[in-house]
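Private note to self, pasted from the team thread so I don't lose it. Backbone tokens:
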């Protein structure tokens, strides 16, 4: 790994759009464009300066082509890597390499979805699995329920511990004006909600929303002349372990350990150095597994580690500080929002949910059925 890339690039603009839903008739590209407009305003970068475009999605077959046409730009470099919800963190890894190699100067990473407003019209380009699709199991929720069941059996993780993940996310969402769900949520509310797939109830599962997100990234040198204080990419890592849930070797261990190790190596940091973490939470079991595999706690201790208020506002391990996929919103692929919230925290732009003294942030997101993993570590100027 080339550690010379540490801090060589920085995020200079972010934008969010379309929560919780766009008006009828809008497209995922509309959601993208609205987020791009906000990110351009945030950064002070002009549209014509974007010469690298990175995009992925569930609804759009060729997202980089569609958004470039919509915006009227002709970039020098494009990347539509699709590895699921963590694609956008992977894009940051690719963008830092492209910028370092001189293939582009200003990179746009963008996502858009109309998952909620499309309703029954929602169509994904995901291919059917010939070994699993015939059994008609209910997609991701069934796969992640298997992981939760196994973790509970093997390590004694409790339903209350899983419910605490959702409750903590809601406490953060209550402090975020953009969050889709802000009403009070208790452990009992989670446990007594409609069952979905054992052991999950509906409150163990992410929301279904529309959403757009955009990130603008450039070289560290150029970032100094942009409108907002730069947030530097200190390290990034990726891993791919399987595709289908039937081929996951161990339901309680994930490739997060690999991608995080690579990110920490480039950043020359350890889990103890992280001040705020965004751990993708489409289902309550996910942050439990990530806390273990990234190295914040030992294997089997994730349920207890994330309990007892540790991840709540004011807790020792601030996590998913925008409310996460469980309460902020989840437009099909959430990874770009782990980046955006990391940036907002390190810029000190989070208002009531601001983590005091945050200088180093970690964002982690998987794709598929824990199939791919992408980790990024960000820092302020003080961390370089």
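Design output:
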């Amino acid at each position: 790994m080339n550690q010379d890339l540490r801090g060589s690039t920085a995020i200079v603009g972010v934008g969010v759009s379309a929560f919780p839903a766009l008006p009828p008739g809008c497209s995922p590209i509309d959601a993208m464009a609205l987020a791009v407009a906000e990110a351009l305003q945030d950064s002070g970068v002009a549209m014509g300066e974007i010469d690298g475009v990175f995009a992925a999605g569930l609804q759009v077959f060729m997202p980089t082509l569609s958004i470039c046409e919509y915006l009227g730009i002709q970039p020098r470099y494009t990347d539509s890597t699709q590895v699921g919800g963590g694609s956008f963190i992977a894009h940051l890894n690719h963008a830092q390499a492209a910028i370092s190699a001189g293939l582009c100067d200003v990179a746009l990473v963008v996502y858009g979805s109309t998952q909620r407003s499309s309703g029954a019209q929602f169509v994904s380009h995901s291919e059917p699995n010939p070994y699993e699709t015939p059994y008609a199991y209910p997609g991701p929720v069934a796969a992640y329920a298997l992981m939760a069941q196994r973790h509970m059996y093997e390590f004694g993780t409790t339903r209350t511990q899983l419910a605490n993940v959702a409750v903590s996310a809601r406490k953060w969402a209550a402090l975020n004006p953009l969050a889709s769900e802000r009403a009070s949520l208790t452990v009992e509310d989670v446990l007594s909600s409609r069952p979905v797939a054992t052991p999950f109830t509906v409150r163990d599962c992410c929301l279904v929303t529309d959403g757009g997100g955009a990130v603008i990234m450039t070289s560290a040198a150029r970032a100094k002349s942009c409108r907002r204080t730069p947030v530097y990419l200190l390290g990034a890592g990726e891993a791919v372990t399987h595709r289908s849930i039937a081929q996951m070797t161990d339901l309680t261990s994930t490739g997060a350990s690999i991608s995080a190790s690579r990110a920490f190596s480039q950043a020359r940091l350890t889990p103890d150095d992280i001040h705020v973490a965004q751990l993708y939470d489409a289902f309550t079991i996910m942050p439990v597994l990530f806390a273990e595999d990234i190295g914040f706690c030992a294997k089997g201790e994730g349920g207890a580690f994330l309990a007892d208020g540790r991840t709540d506002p004011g807790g020792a391990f601030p996590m998913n500080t925008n409310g996460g996929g469980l309460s902020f919103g989840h437009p099909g692929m959430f990874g770009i929002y782990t980046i955006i919230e990391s940036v907002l925290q390190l810029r000190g732009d989070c208002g009531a949910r601001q983590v005091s003294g945050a200088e180093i942030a970690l964002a982690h997101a998987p794709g598929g059925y824990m199939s791919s993993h992408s980790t990024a570590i960000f820092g302020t100027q003080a961390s370089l």
